[in-house]
Prior knowledge:
Elements: H1 2-19, H2 33-43, E1 46-52, H3 57-64, H4 70-79, E2 80-86, H5 93-98, E3 106-110, E4 117-122, H6 127-138, H7 148-152, H8 157-172
Helix pairs in contact: 4-6
Amino acid sequence: xxxxxxxxxxxxxxxxxxxxxxxxxxxxxxxxxxxxxxxxxxxxxxxxxxxxxxxxxxxxxxxxxxxxxxxxxxxxxxxxxxxxxxxxxxxxxxxxxxxxxxxxxxxxxxxxxxxxxxxxxxxxxxxxxxxxxxxxxxxxxxxxxxxxxxxxxxxxxxxxxxxxxxxxxxxxx
Length: 173
């Protein structure tokens, strides 16, 4: 009877660890690109698209190092919906052409609102550098509602509109 109990608890523990989420490393959702857009829009998160191939050595190196880093994994879990696109998969060729991906690895950070490219990262990136790039685009200043990228891009249409609105307010006072 003890043997059966030990066997049962071992099988149960193994089954639990196999189905529990992995914390720390980047979790790429096994969903279509369209489903990722819907999910990100609903959750108010960015979309991370990792274009890769099985034969790409830098892609494999990023999977074995950068994407297993706990700081990158935890940050992306909180701020993005991550999907992988194999460039050799015929179903995903349209997405590759739409976003003009001609080098791998290429990682795109897309806006959850209109799926516009906020940042294109090409080539292998160590975790520390990738995390800095992600924060540059995704972290929002609570006071101004701007990201670091917004602050650097002073000529954007949104910046111009805000500037003109501020000018209008100042003239009325």
